[in-house]
Specification:
Elements (H helix, E strand, L loop, with lengths): L1 E6 L3 H14 L3 E7 L2 H11 L3 E5 L1 E2 L2 E2 H8 L5 E6 L3 H9 L3 E4 L4 H14 L5 H13 L7 E6 L2 E6 L3 E7 L2 E6 L4 E4 L3 H7 L5 E5 L2 E4 L3 E5 L5 E4 L4 E3 L2 H9 L4
Parallel strand pairs: 1-2, 1-3, 3-6, 6-7
Antiparallel strand pairs: 4-5, 8-9, 10-11, 10-14, 11-12, 13-14, 15-16, 16-17
Helix pairs in contact: 2-3
């Protein structure tokens, strides 16, 4: 069993979530509920839960302000939100879990299962630290992204990614510092995640950072040379989209 606290300024939302957890996630025991910024901080410090379900917007402060005051944290967090796509992308950058309101039962069960698998991990504090910097920062390309590794997450600036290459259901990420990571996410997931102004999928197997493209060679689809001297084919159907990125 893992202990959890529910934080939402609407008592009805806490009540609904508690009922869903009792019915569909019996591994989770609700140890307390908070309806304000101040009471949440006090309750978390007192109970020291394994997990907190945290609503984004609250009177007199939001979830990010609350986490700032609690850092470093030693509990898992699942955000419950109706937030915009920019914030959702920030969650995904840092491999943080979130639920959209109204809470879907299958999404809840999936999020809880993820927490159960990593409740003993020690990197939540690092995830949240990077997330809070991202959410308060500028455009996504200036932010950091967490790349899953065997022992946790490797955080790197998005602008440090040269290219992404599909390898079955995995993706190989090549960085400007010559490191590479094989991660258990599909290329499509990175296509959706990386900012489209800065990255382009030029082939079914390749996404490239436009800042690292050195030269384009004509052909049916053509091919490009990257600054790391890699040559990559441009598919015929992706050629016009790719070239349009460089139009003035």
């Amino acid at each position: 069993m893992i202990s959890t606290i529910l934080v939402d300024d609407e008592p009805r939302n806490n009540r609904i979530l508690k009922n869903l957890l009792e019915e569909f996630c019996p591994q989770v025991a609700v140890a307390g509920e908070a309806e304000s910024f101040e009471s949440a901080i006090s309750l978390i410090k007192t109970i020291q839960p394994d997990l907190v379900f945290l609503d984004i917007e609250m009177p007199f402060g939001n979830a990010f302000d609350l986490l700032d005051k609690l850092m470093p944290v030693h509990f898992q967090v699942i955000f419950v939100t109706a937030f915009d796509n920019y914030a959702l992308k920030a969650f995904r950058y840092c491999a943080l879990d979130y639920l959209l309101k109204p809470v879907d039962i299958d999404d809840l069960k999936t999020a809880v299962q993820k927490v159960l698998e990593r409740v003993k991990e020690k990197n939540m504090d690092q995830k949240l630290d990077v997330f809070l910097k991202n959410i308060k920062g500028g455009k996504p390309v200036q932010q950091k992204i967490g790349l899953p590794t065997n022992d946790g997450l490797y955080f790197t600036s998005v602008e440090n990614i040269i290219r992404c290459e599909a390898s079955g259901s995995y993706t190989i990420i090549y960085l400007a510092d010559k490191q590479k990571f094989v991660v258990s996410k599909s290329l499509k997931e990175y296509e959706d995640l990386l900012p489209e102004e800065e990255f382009c999928r030029i082939h079914h197997s390749h996404i490239v950072n436009l800042a690292f493209v050195k030269k384009y060679f004509k052909g049916r689809g053509g091919y490009i040379e990257m600054q790391d001297n890699t040559s990559i084919e441009v598919s015929t159907r992706k050629r016009d989209e790719f070239l349009s990125k460089f139009e003035q």
